[in-house]
Amino acid sequence: MYKLTDHVDIEIIAGQQLSAIPRMLIYDVKIVLTTSNSTKEMDHEILTTYGSDKGWLFTENNDTFRFNTNDHLLTSIYFDYSEQEKEPDHKLDLIMNAKKIVGIPKLVQPSSFDLEPFEYRYCVPSSNILLGYGAIFLKSQNQCTELQITEHISLLFNENHLYCAWLIKHPEQFLVNKIAPIEKYPITPLLKKSFWDVFQFINQEKISLMEEEDIPTFHELLSLYKNIHSTSENNSGMKTLAEKLFDFADNFYSQEQMKFFH
After folding, report:
1. What is the pLDDT of residues 29-77, one digit of tens each?
2. 57-69 per-position pLDDT tens digit
3. What sign for the dihedral angle of Cα 164, 54, 73, 82?
4. 78: nearest Cα among 114, 44, 54
């Protein structure tokens, strides 16, 4: 038996996968895996399924795992990813050597529950992975299980079959700035590099420096923005990255400094 929390048991239905394509909402610091293409459709999905969600008026700090009311199979996920970048203490081998299963979770007992987002994230450009994980993953000692619920998203379970991490592979393919139908764009070496440059720059340490209007961090941000904004690759993925950097600068620095962005 596998578990999403100490009190939420799931079965693994091998061979099935979710059909939804991931979307990375980098303005909302969220990864969305749903077939819904509008907030109205997402609201309807929440109302017609069960599991974990943000709670009343989205005041609770929960990840959203929704399950079908008929067959109790997972239908959608909304992850919050942390901006606290932290290397997982030499635990990456647990991912690389994980036992792999293609399948989706099924709730053993239909219920509502809380599922807190993981505290940390880690960029692994060499493996094209963005990892979300918490203390449970850091305490793992033996082989993990990787449950691949779509081609690009997996849930990780520790040696006790407890959910301890998630990962998204090749996340640069899924950049969006709103909930809408998927708009495909070309995946190029420059886009891949730009994505990882941005995600390794935007972390809690840098945000703290920007809150203090740190000038070296401003110049680092400006240089990264210009490299992406001035490229001849004019697609929605690159635009989304450039807009994210501009938004950070606009939030933390003066209008006088923002003149350098124009």
Report:
1. 899 999 999 989 998 998 999 999 876 555 567 899 999 999 999 999 9
2. 555 678 999 999 9
3. negative
4. 54
Contacts 24+ apart (CB under 8 A), 14-18: 14/101, 14/102, 14/103, 15/102, 15/103, 16/73, 16/102, 16/103, 16/104, 17/102, 17/103, 17/104, 17/148, 17/149, 17/150, 17/151, 18/74, 18/75, 18/76, 18/104, 18/149, 18/150
What angle, 0 to 180 degrees and rounded to 10, lies between the N-to-C axes of helices 204-211 and 236-252? 40
Q: Which residues contact 62 (CB under 8 A, 6 or more apart)?
A: 52, 53, 54, 55, 114, 115, 116, 117
User: How many H-runs (helices) and E-runs (strands) does the chain carry?
Assistant: 8, 14
End-to-end CA distance of the chain: 56
Instruction: Please give the structure tokens belonging to residue 187.
Output: 């995946």
Give the tokens for residue 40: 């109205």
Rounded Cα gap, residues 233 and 251, in angstroms: 26
* Burial of 193: CB neighbours in 10 Å, binned 0-12, 13-18, 19+: middle
Q: Which residues of 159-191 are buried (b: 16+ CB within 10 A; e: fewer)?
A: eeebbbbbbbbebbbbbbbebeeeeebeeeeeb
Q: How far apart are CA 218 and CA 246, in angstroms?
A: 11
- 3-state DSSP call for residue 170? coil
Q: Per the structure block, which two tokens stand in for 158?
A: 């520790």
